[in-house]
Write the structure tokens for this entry.
Amino acid sequence: MITEHSGIFHISTDAYSYLFKINAYGIPEHLHFGAPVQREDALALSCRPGLGWGCSILLDGENTASSLDTMMLEWSGSGRGDYRESPVELCGMPTDFRYEGFEILEGVAPMTCGLPQAHGAEETLVITLAQKNAKLQLYYTVYPTALVRRSVLTNTGEEPISVNKLMSFNLDLPGSFTMATFNGSWIAEMHRTDTVVAESKVVNESLTGSSSNRHNPGFMLFEADATETAGRVYGFNLVYSGNHYASAQRSHQGLTRVMQGINCSNFRKELQPGEAFETPEAVLCHSDEGFGGMSRNMHIFVNDHIVPVAWAHRPRPVLYNSWEGCVFDFNEHRLLDLANRAQDLGCELFVLDDGWFGARNNDKAGLGDYNVNKKKLPHGMEGLAHKIRKKGMDFGLWFEPESVNVDSDLYRAHPDWALTDEFPLVFGRNQLLLDLTKPEVRDYLVDSICPILDSAKISYVKWDMNRHSIALGEKAHDFVLGLYDVLRRIFGPRPGILLESCSSGGNRFDLGMMCFSPQVWTSDDTDPIERLDIQEGASYLYPQSTMGAHVSAAPHAQTLRNTPLATRGNVAFFGCLGYELDLKHLLPVEIKEVKQQIAFYKQYREVFQYGTFTRTNLGWQVTNGSTTLAGVFHRLVHAAPGYEQLRLTGLKKDARYRITSLAQALRVGQFGSLLKHVAPVNIDPNGQILRIADRHFTLPYGEDTLTASGAALMHGILLRPLFRGTGYDQNQRTHGDFGSDIYIIEEIAE
Ligand code: DGJ
């Protein structure tokens, strides 16, 4: 709800209050963003500078407290005495925006520039500020668990205005914070880094043209004592897929200024009289219940208001993807064989990845030519899709529309469609970007992709993007707008297609893409131990339903690490499950295990994909109604480990629960010569007998069942012991390195 009373604006939901006032100088002064409070608290929550600080620039010489530098501001500017970072820069011109009026609109206020927006809001407050040649509007769109802010600058003068910076929001918070950012690179995305915010500025930004795997646009500010379940945490994110910028800095007065928006490095937008520039939406979340509370608020917001309506809360299919199993080497026969196997395992969707069009037999040629390779697929895409659908699976297809190989018919016909500059060409994965700022390029993409989607009745698209941009300034932003235009034109009329966006894995894991693409390929790294960091990093700001998570072969292609199939499954369960390996090489014991994994995942899919997610002391937990699933993950084991206590959260204290561990199969081969301790005969650890036995037999790893109250589970229950070198026993967790367990916790009637 939004209310205004005597110049005090109060935005309130069950989750938060946001308060600001228009002060005597027409400046919007921030009062509060946090736990729900009352409008009458305004004075108690406001900055009261008294006689102010010495050496200040004053708005009013009669009032020593009238320095912008010492106020909490909803917005600031340049050249009027606030020496903190300004959210707006008009090419060296001072700015002095003062209050003009407000409007409360029902729902979302639609943007006109083509940026994607969150949907399903209750109300939007628009505050209008003005100075002699420009109008600035601050938008506050209210969602139950998040506030969405953006700004719009309009040239109301008679001369052009050069904008070289316009942030989506400016927020001044009292207190000291640490900034958590999510950084990385290819196959190593989303690693959390914490930096204390002090008087020197902390910046989180991307300059690659995309939101990037180097620095995800999402970040958190938290107080030093915040934990998973308690303490003050703010979450921020941007509904944008291009270069982003965010900064936080504490002032001498103990106010932390935070802002986020389009990166202004090399950016300049020329606004003609009457023209306006709209910034992307920024998402602001708060919780006094720690990281878990903030994540819950952000997850609800993304699931309910970011992903396309047609896919909100819709179960995601278990898919098989051809890439890691085949790379470019396939034909219809091989694909149909894989599809048979995938279907037998329980997969619901078969995805043909790269290599199906033009001369695309490696990554040096063919990108841009979306004509089906008839040598590989003699019956065309329709023929293949039809045969796969007849097996009872849906069919999905890979595209990489934004790029082109120089060795392609498209580039030969239209070299000017590639995004280049006056210097020699520079390549990434042997490719250039197409200039999506050109309408004819966008038309080409729409016209060449849509017929394939329609004729082959494609129900899933993987939209890949494997090189960084070199476009600068306005062009970099316009490229992103061009991309959104193409996505909107292709998928708007086809809401039933599940779009999974990918950029060498998680190089564009952002809310802008998620407005079109309900799930994103989280990382090319499917090693489950690496994924513990990657998926956990992503989990702070993005729900499990957005994370593509696949089981692949071991040893792993990127780490050479050998991990149990159980752990590969157990980690991938906490996202949208898929399989990506050559199924022909699965052993009989593995086929049995994968079938069990898929059946288990389908049984609890709603809980894994949409349950409330928490990071526990030993791994992850998801809860949906009376069912909780907890994953306990181990990295390297230590000899003679002690007891482990598992602490869950969010259960009903007085309810009783049954806790069952998911049964696992232990491969006999992993025990090598240790088998002599349990086998009646001496088995050669390198011999044929053990190799054959390993294909067909497993040792049981029994289920463990207990009952406990919610109170006991939240206090922490002691798990069965881990293997300690004292023998094999079904009742211990015989793991070795990289082992894991899943616990199913169901509420039971008293
Ligand atoms: C990069 C993606 O991240 C992979 O999953 C795969 O689709 C390849 N591109 C195909 O070229």
Summary: The longest strand covers residues 165-174.
